[in-house]
UniProtKB/TrEMBL annotation:
This is Hsp70 family protein. Keywords: ATP-binding, Chaperone, Nucleotide-binding, Phosphoprotein, Stress response. Belongs to the heat shock protein 70 family. The keyword Nucleotide-binding applies.
Amino acid sequence: MHRTLGIDLGTTNSVTAWLDDGVPVVLPNRHGDQATPSALGIDSRGALLAGREAVHWRAAAPGSVVTEVKRLIGRRWDDELVQQALTTRPDNAPPVRAGAGGSVEIRLGEHYLSPVQVSAILLRRLKEDAESAAGVPFRRAVITVPAYFAEPQIDAVREAGRLAGFHVARIVPEPTAAAHAFGVRAGEDGTKDYATVLVFDLGGGTFDVSLLTIGPAYFAVDRLSGDNLLGGADFDALLDDHLHERLGERDHSGELDAFRIRAAAERAKIELSSQDVSEVVLAPLGRRGGSWSGTVRRTVFEGLLSEHLRRMRETVESMLKEGDALPEDVQRVLLVGGSTHIPAVRRILEEIFGADKVAHSVDPMMAVAHGAAVEAGLLGTLDCPAETCTVEGIPATADACPGCTAPLLGTATVDCPVCHVPAPELTAVCPVCATDLSGLRAATPVAAHTECPECGRTDNPASATLCLDCDAPLEAGGLKCPDCAMVNAAGLSTCSFCDGAFGTAPAEQVTAQPIGLELSDGTVEVLFPDSTPYPTEWRRVDDLVVRDSGGSVRFNIWEGPHLRSAQRNEFCGGFVHERTDGLRGEVPLTVLARLDADRTIDLKYRVDSGDWYKARLRRVMISPAVGRKAAELHARYTDFLDTWKQEITPAEQDALTEITADLAALGRGEAVGRSLDGLLDSARDTLELCARARDASARASVAARGGRGLLPPALLEELRDAAEAVRDARGAMDTDAMRAATERAEDLWTGLDPAVRVSILAIRFAEQDSYPATLRREVLAARDALRDAVERGDQAAQDTQLVRLGRLYEQGRDQFAEVSTPAAGSVLPSRR
């Protein structure tokens, strides 16, 4: 049986567990610890430090150790929650910046990495330690996430697991995993046949609370609530601020003082969970090596937490109300997460539910990892990971999808020796730092064989369920029955021998918040209300239309409670349906949507009565606002290239086409491989410069040709030279030269007598047949009269014809054929 690793990927600490003889067992790391700090660092020689090693190194170089990356994974730089999370980080934490496509990047050593890449490095270390401890390879994983994670964060965690070398079999909400670990069985300890259980999960970075119903072989999540930015890290920040205030004007500006104060705050928080007073000593302190000592009392700490405690209590009470439940309806309260050790937190729950209902039977730090291992034992089938394949229910013993041969096991990976980001074996060049990886090979995997407990044969394949010699049952990957002690096959929730219940079952999950489609008026058409059980069947939305679009249809999916303003919610992803033939008027649109077992959104749609299309949501971190601006700018580029295609130079064509492609990608929500900082401004400047240069060159040329007799010969020569200089710069797409030459040509043009300028333009438009026939005849007649006056040297007649041409030019401005402005990118659906 291919073994699956259960992983609690925590904000502060991470824990791994597996089913050993049908029982969840935490796997120690290389230092013998059950929990691994979710920290990564780079030492002075460039070597990777993980877990405890990184935490110790932080005392010497806090700016080289990354922590709490889970708060940033799957989010955009302009996300309000990202900016809020950054305010709680220590002042000397590694730099964080906006990355390509509007994502978030964190500096690890000499390189800026995405939160997905940082998490993949950590997961890779957890995988290595778990395999060493268990003595078996783990090429599949069940990874837990906060219940309040939106779909982009879930997808980012899955991607980090894939990058680390796992086939991610399931993403499980942390409260659900914790409930698996407690193994609440209906009828036990006075619970009813169908028990209502509340899971209170307060970890290092997130807070979740869930209401569940558990019965014989039945497990359902009824309600979810929580806060993705509330946890132990925030409590550390409060104590950190408190210690800074206590220090007052005492010098604490030393190089490592910020780290010492933060570390002291973390220690005090932990100590105050078990004692009333914590002693704090800060030494050395300041640039002259002073010291400070003092105490922090639990009552003071609880006072600092008062606002957070109030929010937690309100969240619990609100969720009960929304779930039509009373405190007395809850039979058990399960505590999860290290921060539930804080007495004030437990006291809230005891006040609401009574002390006898608050369960302490499982270590809150280990509960989620235990539950992830249990979930692995409940998974008897897998779905194909390929986007275009629809095969479901593949036996967990399979190595690949029977329909499309997509692998159901993680790929062998190598670690880049420079940036440390894992990459698939045989990758030629590191995609992050361009280091040559061609000579690297994955480490020899732990033997993927199963030893028979009866005859001792050691080379049974990992996927075998029976010994090849004696037919004795091998490790089946399932749960041990608490009644008869039989280890069952994976995928069972009741014993195959005695029919006894395991105390848990595959969970029926629900959505935490509404998920919906953005409409053109900025509101949300709800596809899945909050508390929708998933996976779902396809849901159809009719009566949608697309109005007055010359281009494409955009689908934006959001998750959150703000139905009147889509952009106040969490952006799940977007998709653009390109229409080369355009759309006009009111075109019918039909949308189908569903959620899979991991809460991933699938979308299908049909425009008018055409074919059905499948949409793959793009979850890159590009802001929808940036996408709209890019789409509008792309329409302007397309119009410019189409209008002036006969006049622009090959160099201009190449440069503008390249930018047009980037803008099109941004408009579709795709990353462009470079930072968005200044990209749109640069694109606007480039288009403006090309348009100015074309106009300046054309006007200078027209003035040089049409100004004979009206302008001095020296000025005519200057105009010709200026036009030639602009053309030369455009031919090389030398932007600096273009700008200088354009400004010179513009200065010459604007320095002309206004009446002469207008007359030259009117004559040029007439000669190009740009005017209606009657007006054109009048302009040409005035032109001929002006030329006659110039030849005669009759200044009064010249002035008369210049005034006449000016009047005709004004008439012509209103008679040009109207040119329709192209649609600004794609449009959103509307209600009929």
